[in-house]
Amino acid sequence: MIISASYKNDIPTFYGEWFMNRLRAGYCRMVNPWNRKQISRVSLELEDVDGIIFWTKNIAPFLPNLKEVHELGYRFVVQHTINNYPRALEFSVVDADRSVQHLRKVSETYGPRTCVWRYDTIVMSSLTPADFHRENFSQLCGKLEGVTDEVVVSFAHLYQKTLRNMNWAGEEFGFTWHDPDADEKRALLLELVPIANVHGMQVTVCSQPDLVVPGTNEARCIDAARLEEVSGRTIRVEKRGARKECGCFASKDIGDYDTCPHGCVYCYAVQNRNLAQRRYHEHDPDSEFLYPVPGAPADEPRPDPQRKLFD
């Protein structure tokens, strides 16, 4: 079984203590995100875990834990988003140059095949037009050369909560945005491909097979083949993503929606930042659950124990 930690929230940045407590305990419990009633137990025992995919925008707070994860015998891949967007789009994301340094440290310590860069989600706006993306992507590629051999890209999936958050941010911070048609998206991707290739990276497209253009491949964010190479052992899991457009292999995600306080307005996993911040403050690192079981009393928000994350 491959563990995904987590495409629903940033466990390495905000929930690292909880994750390590659960890894040492050998299991965690999960609440069904759709009915909030069904509870399941997920084994985290070494013999049951083929590998771990960490999803993050700031691996720095988790670096000491990553060392312990490796020493315990678990193998992993880090899917690290670095967009270098304006604060109006990403309220609380760590500076891109520091993220590059931290991901480079992971690559140097555990090998470049453990690292995948995500330039994701591509947002087309008056703050981030096509010219911005061409220049921004080129600069980041240069800084990440040798750190990874893959960059995953996608354009915004416009769910109702994403539309609501993007429209609110546009009004609040005075920018406009639009969802490009497929031809405009493909045209931009065709320009990004040679830039990535020059720096030794393959562009892969996440969950949008209709946007796969020459020079790109379909992304496998949960990639059994990459994990096999990292771990040195065969992994037998079927190819089955979280949705029909997804090219991933089967995994068990142990995150929870509406718990990531990064404040990215294009995020599909958060209804609103205040809710995510409240849930983050309410979480108990010693709990079996990442977020309290439904019906459990909610504490008043406490001071942020990771307030130095972005220092």
Structure description:
With 311 residues, the chain is of the alpha/beta class. It has a single domain (2-282), classed as TIM Barrel (Alpha-Beta Barrel). It has helices spanning 11-14, 16-25, 63-71, 96-110, 130-144, 160-173, 182-198, 224-231, 273-282, and strands spanning 2-5, 27-31, 39-43, 51-56, 76-81, 115-122, 150-155, 202-205, 216-218, 252-253. The strands form 2 sheets. An 8-stranded parallel β-sheet has the order 9-8-7-6-5-4-1-10. The protein has a two-stranded antiparallel ribbon with strand order 2-3. Strand 5, helix 4 (96-110) and strand 6 (115-122) form a beta-alpha-beta unit. The longest helix has 17 residues, at 182-198. The protein is globular, with a radius of gyration of 19 Å. The chain starts with a strand and ends in a 29-residue tail after the last helix.
Kindly list the characteristics that best describe this protein.
about 35% helix; about 300 residues; 9 helices; two-stranded antiparallel sheet; globular; disordered C terminus; single chain; TIM Barrel; alpha/beta
| Second CATH tier, the architecture | Alpha-Beta Barrel
Q: What amount of the residues lies in strands? A: 15-25%
Number of DSSP helical runs? 9
Instruction: Kindly state the number of beta strands.
Output: 10
CATH topology: TIM Barrel
Radius of gyration: 19 Å
What is the arithmetic mean of pLDDT? 91
- Supply the CATH class: Alpha Beta
Strand arrangement, largest sheet?
9-8-7-6-5-4-1-10
Based on helices, strands and strand pairing, what is the structural class?
alpha/beta
Tell me the overall shape: globular
